[in-house]
# Entry
Amino acid sequence: MSIRSGRRPGQSGTREAILAAARARFAEVGFDKASIRSIAAAAEVDSALVHHYFGSKQELFAAAVDLPIDPAFILEAIQNAPLAELGTVLPRTMLTVWDSEAGPGVVAAFRSIMAGGDTALVRTFIVQVVLASVRDRIDNPKGSADLRISLVASQLGGLLVTRKVLGIEPIASLPAEEVARLVAPNVQRYLTGDLD
Amino acid sequence: MSIRSGRRPGQSGTREAILAAARARFAEVGFDKASIRSIAAAAEVDSALVHHYFGSKQELFAAAVDLPIDPAFILEAIQNAPLAELGTVLPRTMLTVWDSEAGPGVVAAFRSIMAGGDTALVRTFIVQVVLASVRDRIDNPKGSADLRISLVASQLGGLLVTRKVLGIEPIASLPAEEVARLVAPNVQRYLTGDLD
# Structure
């Protein structure tokens, strides 16, 4: 979507132009390398306007991919957790989101991506937004962070599939707190354990 | 699909009628409770003909859900593995199938089910066919088998999603043997470890 030249777009046109530029940019170069400045340039607006409409780059990303939750909720929980408790906090936070009012939206987005949607954007969200917030803390030995992150993603993604899509019992019906407790030692091993 | 009365169906009509009856029956009551006899009755053929065309109930199931692999391959590997090595053998067997010529078919089937296909049939396949073959061996303490199976399904399903659908690195590119080794202790804990 582009803004027609010679015509001043209304608020909604500007907002949509920014979102379209953000989607294209995030898909093209990923979350980290897509700067607000480059997105603003592609949408032919000032960077300040992007911040005015969407706040942070994370919030812009969430809006661009129609994420039905504020990633700040997840990021704060992760960043505030002691390293030794991340194995519990990560699945508990995810399960809380999936079981919340926003859950059906998350599951629907996940299913549509599985069906052939843009996997680059989910990959970016999982790796560069959610899990990148712990990357430095789990990069031990140095260079192991990406492997640890992809292993954690495999467990949490599988939890979403079994609990919310396939409905495999008893995982589908157990309280979130109980499921988090059951998988916690496994997630913790991926985060901080010996992988050799 | 039903056979028109007053007309003797050809071989291909009979085969299709059996498959249609099998699909309906498996979806309705699950793998365990769907007997060859009841499927034959619904297709208006003799049970012997079902065995003649499809062999075992597992093979009939695989044909009914268009499974691009022979489940016997998976089942044999699982049944022959010592309990203490199942945590390695299970992911290694699955990874071998996904990386094989049959892999694209498995991934395509998985994606289409995620998109809104019949989840009852996958649930049945995972729980009642593949993992049921280990159920008795891992039911310790008694009554824990279903929980253990659903946890294993969450890890293996997540591996399929990250490696084959989302392509999250390095899991997407590591040799199957290496991925199996990395997740093995986690799968083994779900199978035989302390879950309290």
